[in-house]
């Protein structure tokens, strides 16, 4: 299980640093209480990690172990070359600018008349909130939903599924959660200054090499019965 924890931890850290959800957490933490942003983002990432590992664990029970092993190998190699291509062909600030534009538009839409509201209006809005928003902070729910749907179908999610199909799922979950906690905490505490100081090209190159190493290791390892 130790190897799967290390693999999952390394894969998660190199996949999440500089990702859209990393930037989203950093920007949200600049505008809202950090504990709420951290709780929402980390809660979404933990749930996504567990769901991905469950899918990976179930795959060998639905498809032969031989096929899941080969698919995992192809996924790792494919993601490795994809990350290397991203490192050499995409601008470093694209994802940050995209997230800023999306969150900035949301702030403008929702924040235009906030200064005019009085306590009666606030109480009325609170009563008219959806059921979940009455029990949880809207900021926490916003951070959760942005992160959860931002991760859905992402490269790191698919890689977690592939790793859980070929390695110990519990180790994959533990390593993934530790990695997500480290990255999200760094994003929330460091804020935009940390996000902009990180070279996305270096991270993408490192992630690409790591995925290729995992792919080669998967290709050379025997298929477990």
TrEMBL record:
Which terms under GO biological process does the entry name?
Golgi calcium ion homeostasis; Golgi calcium ion transport
| Transmembrane segments annotated in the record for this chain | 36-55, 67-85, 131-150, 170-190, 202-220
Taxonomic lineage of the native organism: Eukaryota, Viridiplantae, Streptophyta, Embryophyta, Tracheophyta
User: What UniProt keywords apply to this chain's record, in alphabetical order?
Assistant: Membrane, Transmembrane, Transmembrane helix
Q: What is this protein called?
A: GDT1 family protein
Q: How does it sit in the membrane?
A: Multi-pass membrane protein
Q: Which organism is it from?
A: Olea europaea subsp. europaea
According to the record, the signal peptide region is none
Gene Ontology cellular component list: Golgi apparatus; membrane
Q: Any idea where this protein resides?
A: Membrane
Concerning PANTHER family, the annotation shows: TRANSMEMBRANE PROTEIN 165 (PTHR12608:SF1), TRANSMEMBRANE PROTEIN HTP-1 RELATED (PTHR12608)
GO molecular function term, any single one? manganese ion transmembrane transporter activity
Checking InterPro entries in the record gives: GDT1-like
Specify the domain of life of the species encoding this protein: Eukaryota
Family, per the entry? Belongs to the GDT1 family.
Q: Which Pfam families match?
A: GDT1
């Amino acid at each position: 299980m130790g190897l799967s924890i290390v693999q999952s931890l390394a894969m998660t850290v190199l996949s999440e640093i500089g990702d859209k959800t990393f930037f989203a957490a950093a920007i949200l933490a600049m505008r809202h209480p950090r504990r709420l942003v951290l709780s929402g983002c980390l809660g979404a990432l933990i749930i996504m990690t567990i769901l991905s590992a469950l899918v990976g664990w179930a795959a060998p029970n639905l498809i032969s172990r031989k096929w899941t092993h080969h698919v995992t190998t192809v996924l790792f190699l494919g993601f490795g070359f994809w990350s290397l291509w991203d490192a050499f062909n995409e601008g470093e600030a694209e994802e940050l600018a995209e997230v800023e534009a999306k969150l900035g538009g949301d702030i403008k839409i929702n924040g235009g008349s906030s200064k005019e509201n009085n306590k009666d209006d606030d109480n009325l809005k609170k009563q008219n909130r959806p059921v979940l928003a009455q029990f949880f902070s809207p900021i926490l729910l916003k951070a959760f939903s942005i992160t959860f749907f931002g991760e859905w179908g992402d490269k790191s999610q698919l890689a977690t599924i592939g790793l859980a199909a070929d390695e110990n799922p519990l180790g994959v979950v533990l390593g993934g959660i530790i990695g997500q906690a480290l990255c999200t905490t760094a994003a929330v505490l460091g804020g935009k200054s940390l996000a902009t100081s990180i070279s996305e090209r270096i991270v993408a190159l490192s992630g690409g090499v790591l995925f290729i190493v995992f792919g080669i290791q998967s290709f050379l390892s025997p298929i477990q019965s």
